[in-house]
């Protein structure tokens, strides 16, 4: 194992070697070869182990492919739509306390889901949550851990290989490290430490514009003006690391709430965040919005279509010539109140497609299909996939114009 890891690190990734007959070719944390010898294929046994077996791979899907890029009925649509592929963030709570060992890599399950969402549903964007602690293996101020990054990078590379147009790295820490607010609490990470972390990470993906940098998941209960200086430090570090054109997604407070982005001062505080050359190019506001009674994303019923929220924010974005991306939203996967309201929310966003990049539903990946906001597709024994109705009708349906 050590030898394999060393080789991979030295080669700068790539899992191009061919495995021996009946050898391991996959699994959540597998870093060895994924190719099987002639006459064998890689059979996914479970999340932890896939092995080379004789024969040819069965088709992954028997469903007809959608005709490419259908336009919605309105004739307008956002650029990006997809689903969060969660797992590397598991174990993080809202205090930003994340055990590096609680991460649950989506592995071959996540890869299969992304390939399905692109091929069968015409979706094109995935958000890949991961904790800061995981990427530095629990050492604040430490350098990026090569082994952990290689495991996470497998998911990023699989996203790119799926044909998706956008793969977002999301640092899922609520603006904190183990309870302390970055740049605000004593004993907390400094802005310089956060910026240095982002500079190192950005340098690794600087040559790929499909990779977007979601600098932080859901900041909350902090000083928004101080937070804006933290965000500025990260943006500057990302650009100085050579990632001059990747999208950088920047969130406000109140858990990145779209509804409170203007009321609570996030918009005003973040508007001046700029590139080193003074421009705002490819700096995008990152917002979240749920549709349940308290906007928490913990109830299956949807009580609002958020039309007013996305109209007000959309008008502000137009006035300021900026864009936003809704990177978390969702509802009960089989709840009819959500079919109506989530679809209407997306219709409003489609009508503002000049300022909204799109939406990414929460969530698939390692969640159990029984999860209250599950967008987890299930694979049938013949290799075909079944989506939850909310994905079919709204997440994909409103993107492809076939929700009804
Ligand atoms: C944020 O804005 C909402 C209105 O959208 C308001 O009810 C709430 O008190 C505000 N919270 C803070 C901390 O400013
Ligand atoms: C959202 O709901 C309101 C009523 O609550 C309605 O007036 C509006 O048309 C709906 N938006 C869409 C896009 O259907």
Automatic annotation (TrEMBL):
The enzyme class is: hydrolase
- Mind listing the GO biological process terms from this record? cellulose catabolic process
Q: Does the keyword Protein transport apply?
A: no
Supply the EC number(s).
3.2.1.4
Listed PROSITE patterns: CBM1_2, GLYCOSYL_HYDROL_F5
Q: Does the record's keyword annotation contain Hydrolase?
A: yes
* Entry GO terms, CC: extracellular region
What is the residue range of the signal peptide feature?
1-16
Q: What InterPro entries does the record tag this protein with?
A: CBD (IPR000254), CBD_sf (IPR035971), GH (IPR017853), Glyco_hydro_5 (IPR001547), Glyco_hydro_5_CS (IPR018087)
Q: What is the catalytic activity of this protein?
A: Endohydrolysis of (1->4)-beta-D-glucosidic linkages in cellulose, lichenin and cereal beta-D-glucans
Superkingdom classification of source: Eukaryota
Kindly list the GO molecular function terms attached to this UniProt entry: cellulase activity; cellulose binding
Q: Which residues cross the membrane?
A: none
Domain CBM1 per the UniProt entry, residue ranges: 17-53
UniProt keyword annotations, A-Z: Carbohydrate metabolism, Cellulose degradation, Glycosidase, Hydrolase, Polysaccharide degradation, Pyrrolidone carboxylic acid, Signal
Similarity section:
Belongs to the glycosyl hydrolase 5 (cellulase A) family.
What does it do? Endoglucanase (EG) that cleaves the internal beta-1,4-glucosidic bonds in cellulose. The degradation of cellulose involves an interplay between different cellulolytic enzymes. Hydrolysis starts with EGs, which cut internal glycosidic linkages to reduce the polymerization degree of the substrate and creates new chain ends for exocellobiohydrolases (CBHs). The CBH release the disaccharide cellobiose from the non-reducing end of the cellulose polymer chain. Finally, beta-1,4-glucosidases hydrolyze the cellobiose and other short cello-oligosaccharides into glucose units.
Q: What is this protein called?
A: Endoglucanase EG-II
Q: Which organism is it from?
A: Recurvomyces mirabilis
- Species lineage, top-down? Eukaryota, Fungi, Dikarya, Ascomycota, Pezizomycotina
């Amino acid at each position: 194992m050590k030898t394999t890891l060393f080789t991979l690190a030295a080669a700068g990734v790539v899992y191009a070697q061919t495995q021996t007959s009946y050898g391991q070719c996959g699994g959540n944390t597998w870093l060895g070869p994924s190719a099987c010898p002639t006459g064998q294929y890689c059979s996914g046994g479970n999340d932890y182990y896939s092995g080379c077996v004789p024969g040819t791979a069965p088709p992954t899907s028997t469903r007809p492919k959608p005709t490419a890029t259908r336009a919605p009925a309105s004739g307008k649509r956002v650029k990006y739509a997809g689903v969060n592929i969660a797992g590397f963030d598991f174990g993080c709570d809202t205090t930003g306390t994340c055990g590096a060992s609680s991460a649950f890599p989506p592995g071959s399950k996540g890869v299969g889901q992304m390939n399905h969402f692109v091929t069968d549903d015409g979706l094109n964007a995935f958000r890949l949550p991961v904790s800061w602690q995981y990427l530095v293996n629990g050492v604040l101020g430490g350098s990026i851990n090569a082994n952990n990054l290689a495991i996470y990078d497998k998911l990023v590379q699989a996203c790119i290989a799926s044909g998706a147009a956008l793969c977002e790295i999301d640092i899922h820490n609520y603006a904190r490290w183990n309870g302390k607010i970055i740049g605000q609490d004593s004993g907390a990470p400094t802005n310089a430490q956060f910026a240095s972390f982002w500079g190192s990470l950005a340098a690794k993906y600087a040559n790929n514009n499909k990779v977007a940098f979601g600098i932080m998941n859901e900041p909350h209960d902090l000083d928004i003006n101080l937070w804006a200086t933290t965000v500025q430090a990260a943006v500057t570090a990302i650009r100085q690391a050579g990632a001059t054109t990747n999208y950088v997604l920047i969130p406000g407070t109140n858990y990145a709430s779209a509804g409170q982005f203007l009321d609570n001062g996030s918009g005003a505080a973040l508007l001046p965040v700029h590139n080193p050359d003074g421009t705002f190019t490819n700096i995008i506001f990152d917002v979240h919005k749920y549709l349940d009674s308290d906007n928490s994303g913990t109830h299956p019923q949807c009580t609002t279509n958020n039309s007013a929220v996305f109209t007000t924010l959309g008008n502000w974005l137009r006035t300021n010539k900026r864009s936003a991306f809704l990177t978390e939203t969702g509802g009960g996967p089989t709840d009819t109140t959500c079919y109506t309201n989530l679809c209407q929310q997306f219709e409003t966003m489609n009508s503002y497609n000049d300022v909204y990049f799109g939406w990414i539903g929460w969530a698939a990946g390692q969640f159990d299909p029984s999860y209250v906001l599950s967008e987890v597709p299930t694979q049938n024994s013949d290799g075909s996939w079944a989506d939850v109705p909310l994905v079919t009708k709204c997440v994909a349906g409103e993107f492809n114009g076939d929700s009804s």
